[in-house]
Amino acid sequence: MDPLKRLLTRRRSLSERVRVLESEIQECRQLNVRLAELCDVVTELLLPAADRDEAALTEVLERYRADIGDPLAR
Amino acid sequence: MSPTDAPRGSVTALEVDDEGLLVRGAGDGPVDFLFGDQRVGSFWLRRDTRPEGEWLRYPWPATLRRFLNGVVTVTLADPADGTRWTSYDARLGSGEGTVEVRDAQGHALALDKSNRLTRLFGDRDAAQLEPLLDALEVVIGALEKAGVEPFLAYGTLLGAVRDQDFIGHDSDADVGYVSRFEFPVDVVRESYALQRRLREMGFRVQRYSGLGLKVILEEPGGTSRGLDVFGGFSRDGMLYLMGEVGHPFRDEWLHPRTSATLAGREFPVPARPEHLLEAMYGESWRLPDPAFKFVTPVSTQRRLNGWFRGARVGLDDRWARSRAGTLPPERTGPSELVRWVAGQEPVLGTVVDVGCGRGSDALWLAAQGARTVGLDYFPPDLRRAVRRAERRGVEVRFEWMNLGELRSVLGAGTWLAREEGPRIMLAHHLVDATDRRGRANLVRLAKMVTRSSGRLYVQAYTAPTELSGRLGLDPVDAEQLSELVVSSGGRVEQVVELGEREAGMGEAPPGGPPVICRMVASWTR
Description:
Chain A is mainly alpha-helical. Chain A has helices at 3-49, 54-68. Chain B has three domains: 3-110, no CATH class; 122-312, Beta Polymerase, domain 2, CATH 3.30.460.10; 336-523, 3-Layer(aba) Sandwich (Rossmann fold).
């Protein structure tokens, strides 16, 4: 392959690798919110559910949902 | 940077028509435009205009257009010192009366930096700002109590440091804090806990991202005002603060906090606020620029997006279109999908309409005797749905849920899985309005709610049309959707391909190409 063509091909493949790397990094970053959400559900919802107190659980669930975001509340 | 080095423009000529302003001038920099003596907005001479012959065209922002009927004297002025460059007497629209940019109570309105019409601080007297100062004190006190160290941020910090007052062209108050944690996951968890504490204290709170909150306060006269609370964290000599900062920063520039005067009261600010202002507004932060736009580096945007954002897919666009009055008109009767579902299901126990909009399908289902729940993430639509149900005397539970937030989805799923069966779920043009995460969360929700009880019914575009474009829908691949269901342990019971007319979308003639699919899925334990 002539050197210029080789250089161009290499540049193209490098920029493609950078693009893929960037999206992989972004995927890793996105795990932060995901993990935070899961921890939150486990500590706030799943642990109270383990107590098997139906009335308390209903209250916990309603409060949990309202705490996340309740734009209709006035 | 000295003031003379800051970007400056000057205006030499102005004409005004129904399309906008035609301006001539030199350089580039902020320009205020006034109607009479009222500042209505600001723009940058070149950045915010486009060439039109010998002129530069600044088109009227969509939010302003409904006021542009009548005569008006438009003046262009220098925001730095108020110098009036030039004026033009215009007759706009039908030309009757005088152009007045005011709200229903007669308060002068102006465009803020996001081109939203609001009452700005410059148009309010000191007494009117007292409730906001009170609110700032309350929110800052609450944040302290909740365990973080808040300080004035963005425009509010700029006003306090530069003028010891609110900036006249600003319309809101911002608060920031820097987390004591140094990993985004812990920073987000702290923010969730903070939201709960604020709610316990009786505040209404909206979440904008994993690290951005708005605390809503009711003001006299029934209006509500939001205080933005921007979280941040620092690690390895870098400070990241929602929503625009990623800057090398020393801890001693933040701690210990000091205080600054804002409209006669003392508020906490970082130890060296000038460094934070430079990180926020660049080196020329001392010069007034009402049309300032953040030029956040792409790498900072990517970081903040990746760590904290992604839960508001389509929502900001929906708000913008709602404010500009360009949302497509809502269907008033039931959709073809919901009629079809009613024909397929002999017993409608509990039906959950996800992405219910203004509730047309939910109201119809309730009238058929189903226990109905409508879920949506756009508060104005939900409020309208609630009012419609009240007017008709129909019982429907309309609730807020955001498919982009796993917590919201799992919370709703846990609640709905306990409702009476059979439980059926509808998603009418939802999977083509959300993203991959939203689709995965819909399937997760459907599995939680309908498993061994009912089915999920989906209708979505699979190919673009003129109407799908107008509705802002993004066609999906039916096979990928099937795979999503199957990989979650579900079964695709039925797939029907339809033309737009058959699917009840638009007025196209019958027998058009199959551009819409209906899918029925179920899960068993």
